[in-house]
Specification:
rod-shaped; 3 domains; Helix Hairpins; alpha+beta; Heat Shock Protein 90; 6-stranded antiparallel beta sheet
């Protein structure tokens, strides 16, 4: 049998089936017990009948005065036969004591085969049904099993009727109880359906649907489902918010990159137009070519930075080789002193050289970008300190610091500082490259900034 698909129907059918099996087992056991009990009683009567019949006159004799036959106090239907040396006679008592039916020879032959062992045996008496008989010497007595069979059949019929009524009642009650108990699960499903109808493919999506609090008690099975669904919806909501932020960042990144590329392109087009309009002016042509070369170099740096970010985002591995971090910082600080002599540069090294595993060129770009950030966004006279640590290095300056609202976004691409730390030719990818390269090395970069102190800490191991 194929069960229904709905959980409520399956629970109801299963409950009714279990009740049916239990009822049938109990009914069967009751009928068997009753049948055995009645047969035991009938056997006792048969054995008692043998003793009483043994004390009476022979069957066929005239009844004694008072109308009492040789059957004495025997029940209607009692069988009594006397079998002696191949000859025998026997009667069956009718409903009235005066009514008797003599047993034919064939029946007497059957009774002659009953062993005189004091036990009760079953014999099918033609025309009268099944009897339980016992033999005591030549005397055989028996009682019909029909009353017992009728009583057992009546009990079985009543049991079947009551079982049917119990199954119908159980089905109705189970249906009501199961549906009421599953109603919270239906509410949880309604919440899931409501979320499924929301447009989640694009744009800013706020999944505000939640399973009601009274359905999130984890001490119950439905509560566990409700709590798990709420947790899932929270993860989905945070993922959709992150996706939306990522989409916005990509749009902003494309817009910023386009703006940064448009400026040098506009400059190149302008100077090329100037050189075309003054074909004989050697000085104008030289100026135009110099400016075109300068803007081309600027565009090249921007494109190279974008390509490096793209490679890092794609997870392309960097070189893994020993890098002398001490020497790398020494060279970077010396270069910074030459480029920005108006700043005060300090380098604090450990007693022993520090070596890390990584890409030397990429790590050199990390240090250069941090020093360039300090040089470009602080006024002359600012003290910039580079300190070597056991896990990496720190770059700190005593400049005006970053705006509080910029600290959280300083490592985003094309992030812009305020007027106190305005860029001079920067394109907003320096710190983004720092974070991407450090992350590719399995490290982390942290920023802490307040007026008078800005500190970048790079941990590489």
């Amino acid at each position: 049998m194929r069960l229904p698909r709905s959980l409520a129907s399956r629970l109801v059918v299963t409950t009714v089936a279990l009740v049916a099996v239990a009822a049938l087992l109990v009914s069967g056991a009751t009928a068997l017990a009753m049948r055995g009990y009645l047969h035991d009683q009938l056997d006792d009567k048969v054995l008692s009948s043998v003793r009483r019949a043994g004390d009476g006159p022979r069957p066929g004799a005239m009844p004694p005065p008072g109308g009492q036959a040789e059957f004495g106090n025997q029940e209607p239907g009692t069988l009594i036969a006397r079998l002696d040396r191949g000859e025998g006679e026997g009667d069956i008592l009718g409903a009235q004591r005066s009514q008797r039916e003599s047993l034919p020879e064939a029946t007497l032959d059957l009774l002659d085969d009953v062993p005189a062992d004091g036990e009760v045996h079953v014999v099918d008496v033609p025309g009268h049904g099944r009897y339980r008989v016992a033999a005591d010497g030549p005397l055989v007595t028996g009682l019909p099993t029909e009353p017992v069979d009728d009583a057992v059949a009546s009990v079985v019929r009543w049991e079947l009727l009551l079982t049917l009524l119990a199954l119908v009642s159980t089905g109705a009650l189970a249906s009501s109880v199961v549906r009421r108990q599953l109603r919270p699960l239906t509410e949880v499903a309604e919440t899931a359906h409501a979320v499924a109808t929301l447009p989640l493919s694009s744009g800013e999506v706020g999944v505000t649907e939640r399973v009601p609090e009274h359905l999130t008690d984890e001490r119950t099975e439905v509560g566990q489902v409700g709590a798990a669904l709420n947790t899932l919806l929270s993860h989905v909501e945070s993922s959709l918010d992150a996706r939306h932020r990522s989409e916005q960042q990509v749009r902003q990144f494309v817009a910023d990159a386009s703006h940064e590329l448009r400026t040098p392109l506009t400059t190149i087009v302008g100077y090329a137009e100037l050189a075309r309009r003054r074909p004989g002016d050697a000085e104008a042509a030289a100026t135009a070519l110099a400016k075109v070369e300068e803007e081309s170099a600027r565009m090249t740096r921007l494109v190279e930075d974008l390509l490096l970010l793209a490679r890092l985002d794609a997870g392309r591995p960097l070189a893994r080789e020993p890098v002398d971090l001490t020497r790398l910082l020494l060279e970077a600080v010396e270069d910074a002193r030459v480029v920005a002599p108006g700043h005060r540069w300090s380098l604090e090294l450990a007693e022993e050289a520090v070596e890390v595993i990584g890409d030397e060129q990429a790590l050199h770009q990390v240090v250069t970008n941090l020093l360039a950030n300090a040089r470009k966004h602080t006024p002359p006279g600012t003290h910039v300190t580079v300190q070597l640590t056991e896990r990496g290095f720190e770059v700190a300056d005593d400049g005006p610091g970053l705006a509080p609202d910029l600290v959280a976004h300083a490592f985003e691409r094309f992030a812009r500082g305020d007027a106190a730390r305005q860029r001079e030719g920067g394109v907003g990818l320096g710190l983004a490259l720092v974070q991407a390269i450090v992350a590719a090395h399995g490290g982390v970069v942290r920023l802490a900034s307040e007026p008078g102190e800005t500190r970048f800490r790079v941990d590489l191991r």
